[in-house]
Write a structure and sequence with these properties.
The complex is a heterodimer.
Chain A lengths: L2 H5 L10 H8 L2 H25 L2 E2 L7 E2 L3 H7 L2 H33 L5 H13 L2 H11 L6 H8 L14 H26 L4 H8 L4 H30 L2 H6 L11 H11 L3 H31 L1
Helix pairs in contact in A: 5-9, 5-11, 6-9, 9-11, 11-14, 13-14
Chain B lengths: L13 H37 L3 H4 L14 H8 L3 H33 L2 H12 L6 H10 L7 H25 L3 H8 L4 H12 L1 H17 L2 H6 L7 H10 L5 H21 L1 H11 L5
Helix pairs in contact in B: 1-13, 3-13, 4-7, 4-10, 5-7, 7-10, 8-9, 10-14, 12-13
The chains are: A mainly alpha, B mainly alpha.
Main location (chain A): membrane
Keywords (chain A): Membrane, Transmembrane, Transmembrane helix, Transport
Organism (chain A): Roseicella aerolata
C-alpha cells in the first residue's frame, strides 16, 4: 500500500527502544540540509502567508494591519462562495469518474493479454505529459466552429457543443480533461493493490461455483478497499488543487463560470495584486483541503475496521 | 479442464463454448481499445496539427492525415519566440532543481528512514497536499524584496517545493526497504555513519535514486505556475512560453501544436523508456508535483 497515507495513521512504528533512540539521533545530521530547504521554501511561506493575511495589502501601495478583516470579507464575498461551490462540484465529478474508470482500467490491465505492457504505457502517458501542452491541444479541439470534437459529435448524429465556451458546459468539459489526465494514476494505485491480492480466496470461490461477478463483489472489492480509499484521497486532493489545465483552457471563464478557488486565488494575488486578501484565501483553501483529507482518512479507518 | 465432469455447468457443445470465449475476448479487446484510444487520439491529433499547414488545420471537415506533411510549423517555432532560450531555461531549471533536491533529499531520506522520524515524513506529506499556488505569494514577495526577479534563481528555488518532497519521499521508502545488516557490519568494522552511508547504503540505493531523479525531473519540467508568476521576459520556461503563444496569437494551430509537442516530447520519451521506474515511484509514494 502507498505508505504516505499509512503514515498519517500515527506514530505506530515510531516507537524505538530507548537505547536505540540515542543511536538514531546521530542520523539527524543527514536531515539538516533538507530541513533548511524545507524551512526556507515550505515552512516560511506558510507562516508568512498567515502574517500577510492580516494586512490590507495591494502590491505597490502601503499595507495596513486589519487583523481578521480579510477573513470576514472572504466569508461575505459571493464570488468566493461561488468559487467554493464550483470547486466542490468540480471535485465530486473529477473524483467519481476517474475512480470508476480507473478501477475498470485496473481490472483490465490486471489480466494478461498480448501487448499489455505497451497498452499500459500508452494509458499512463496523459498523466506524465506536460499539462500546459495537452491543455492547449484540448483548447484547439474544443473550438466551436473548427474543433475536431464537434466534428466527431456531428458524425455520430449529436448536436455540436459549445464545450468550454458556454457557462453550462464548461465545468463538465474541464472535468473531462481532468479525467483524461488523471485516471491513469487511480489505475496505477489500484493495479498495485490488485497485484498484492492473495490467490487462495479465488480458488476457493471457484470451487464453490461463484460467478466472476460474485468473486469481484465479495472478494476483490473488500480486499481492494484500502487501496481504493488511498486512491480516493489522493484523487480528491489533486482535484481540489487542479489549476494548470483550467487556467490554460478558460482562465476561469466564460465570465466566472469555471472560476475555482485556485483560479480565484491566482486572480486575487497576481492579477489584482491583492496579496493580503489572497493570503486569506490560501489559509481558508488549506483548511478546506485538510478538512476533506481528514474526513477521508476517518473513512479509511472505518474501512479498515470492518 | 475441458470435459471434466461436474465442472461449470455452462454451454454444452465445445463449439458454442469456443464461440463464447471468442466473444468475451473480443469484448475485452474492445474495452482495452476504449481505454487507450483517448490517450492515443489526443497525441496523434497534436502530431497531425503540427505537421499540417494552416489551411488544412482550419479546414471543415477536419483533415486528419497531413498530405503532404510539412515541417514548416517546427521551423517557425525555432525561428521565433526565442524558443531555444526558453528551452535552455527549462533545462537549467529542471536539472538544477532536481540536482539540488538529490543533494539534500537523498541523505534526508536516509536519515529519516534510520530515525523512523514519522513526523518529519508527515510534514513532507502536507507539503504534497498544499496547492503549489499557495507558496507563490510569499516567495514572490521575498524574491522581489531580494531583487532576484529577472534571474532563473527564483524559479529554481521555487521548484524545490516540488522536487525536494518527491526525492525525500521516494528515498525514505527505498532506504526502509534496504536490509540494514551491511551498514551495521561496516559500523562494527569502525566506519563512521557517514562512510556507511556513502560507501554501503548509497550504492545499494542507486535504483531508488534513479526513480527519484526521473520523477523529480518530470514534475519540475512540467511545472507551469511557479515560472508563470516568477519569470520575467527572458526567464520563461517552456510551459510558460508555449502558453503565451496561445494568449497573444490568433488561430495559429500549426506552430502552437508543434511547440506544445516539443515541450512535452522529452517527458513522453522518458516515460516510454523509464516506465517501470515511474510506475514504481508513483505507486510507492503516490507523489505528484505540487
Amino acid at each position: 500500500m502507498p505508505r504516505d497515507i499509512a503514515i498519517l495513521d500515527g506514530p505506530a512504528e515510531a516507537a524505538l527502544p530507548r537505547g536505540r533512540r540515542n543511536y538514531a539521533r546521530r542520523y539527524a545530521w543527514f536531515v539538516v540540509p533538507a530541513a533548511v530547504v524545507v524551512v526556507a521554501v515550505i515552512l516560511f511561506p506558510w507562516l508568512f502567508t498567515l502574517y500577510v493575511s492580516a494586512f490590507d495589502w495591494h502590491l505597490g501601495s502601503e499595507r495596513r494591519w486589519v487583523g481578521l478583516e480579510n477573513y470576514v470579507r472572504l466569508f461575505t464575498d459571493a464570488r468566493f462562495g461561488w468559487a467554493v461551490l464550483r470547486t466542490l462540484l468540480y471535485t465530486v465529478l473529477a473524483v467519481v469518474a476517474p475512480m470508476v474508470l480507473g478501477l475498470a482500467a485496473a481490472l483490465c490491465f490486471h489480466r494478461r493479454f498480448p501487448l499489455r505492457g505497451l497498452a499500459r504505457t500508452v494509458f499512463i502517458l496523459p498523466m506524465m505529459a506536460t499539462p500546459v501542452a495537452v491543455a492547449l491541444v484540448w483548447t484547439m479541439m474544443f473550438h466551436p466552429q473548427l474543433g475536431v470534437l464537434n466534428w466527431l459529435l456531428t458524425q455520430v448524429g449529436l448536436p455540436p457543443s459549445m464545450w468550454v465556451y458556454s457557462a453550462e458546459t464548461v465545468i463538465p468539459t474541464l472535468v473531462m480533461v481532468e479525467v483524461w489526465h488523471w485516471t491513469p494514476l487511480v489505475m496505477l494505485l489500484i493495479l498495485g493493490g490488485l497485484a498484492s491480492l492473495p490467490t487462495d480466496p479465488y480458488e476457493a470461490a471457484k470451487i464453490d461455483g461463484a460467478s466472476p461477478w460474485q468473486a469481484f463483489r465479495h472478494i476483490t472489492l473488500p480486499l481492494l478497499a484500502p487501496f481504493i480509499v488511498v486512491a480516493l484521497i489522493i484523487r480528491t486532493i489533486d482535484a481540489l488543487k487542479a489549476f494548470d489545465t483550467i487556467y490554460v483552457i478558460t482562465q476561469g471563464g466564460p465570465g466566472q463560470a469555471s472560476e475555482t478557488i485556485n483560479i480565484f486565488l491566482y486572480l486575487q494575488a497576481f492579477a489584482f495584486y491583492n496579496v493580503g486578501y489572497a493570503s486569506a484565501v490560501v489559509v481558508v483553501f488549506f483548511a478546506i483541503i485538510m478538512v476533506l483529507a481528514a474526513l477521508l482518512l476517518w473513512t479509511r479507518q472505518r474501512v479498515k475496521v470492518t | 479442464m475441458v470435459g471434466q465432469p461436474g465442472h461449470a455447468p455452462g454451454p454444452r457443445s465445445p463449439a458454442i463454448r469456443r464461440l463464447r470465449r471468442l466473444a468475451a475476448d473480443a469484448g475485452f479487446g474492445l474495452a482495452v481499445l476504449a481505454l487507450v484510444s483517448p490517450a492515443v487520439l489526443v497525441f496523434l491529433w497534436m502530431l497531425s496539427l503540427s505537421l499540417k499547414n494552416e489551411l488544412d488545420n482550419t479546414a471543415w471537415p477536419p483533415v486528419f492525415l497531413p498530405d503532404p506533411p510539412t515541417l514548416d510549423n517546427y521551423r517557425e517555432v525555432f525561428a521565433r519566440n526565442d524558443f531555444l532560450l526558453f528551452a535552455w531555461n527549462s533545462v537549467v531549471v529542471s536539472f538544477s532543481a532536481t540536482g539540488l533536491a538529490l543533494l539534500v533529499g537523498v541523505p534526508a531520506g536516509y536519515g529519516i528512514a534510520k530515525m523512523r522520524a514519522i513526523r518529519a515524513a508527515a510534514l513532507i506529506l502536507i507539503a504534497r497536499i498544499t496547492p503549489g499556488l499557495s507558496y507563490l505569494i510569499p516567495l514572490f514577495l521575498l524574491f522581489q524584496w531580494l531583487e532576484l526577479t529577472g534571474t532563473l534563481l527564483p524559479i529554481v528555488i521555487s521548484h524545490l517545493v516540488i522536487t525536494v518532497p518527491i526525492v525525500v519521499w521516494v528515498m525514505i521508502s527505498f532506504f526502509e526497504g534496504l536490509p540494514g545488516e551491511l551498514e551495521e557490519a561496516a559500523l562494527v568494522d569502525g566506519a563512521t555513519i557517514w562512510q556507511a552511508f556513502r560507501h554501503v547504503a548509497l550504492p545499494l540505493a542507486r535504483p531508488g535514486i534513479t526513480v527519484a531523479t526521473i520523477l523529480a525531473f518530470i514534475f519540475s519540467w512540467n511545472n507551469f505556475v511557479f515560472a508563470m508568476v516568477l519569470a520575467g521576459r527572458e526567464t520563461r520556461t517552456l510551459p510558460v512560453a508555449v502558453n503565451n503563444m496561445l494568449t497573444f496569437e490568433q488561430i495559429s494551430w500549426g506552430p502552437l501544436s508543434a511547440a506544445a509537442l516539443l515541450v512535452t516530447l522529452p517527458v513522453l520519451l522518458l516515460t516510454l523508456v523509464a516506465q517501470k521506474q515511474i510506475v514504481a515511484g508513483l505507486t510507492a509514494g503516490g507523489v505528484k508535483g505540487a
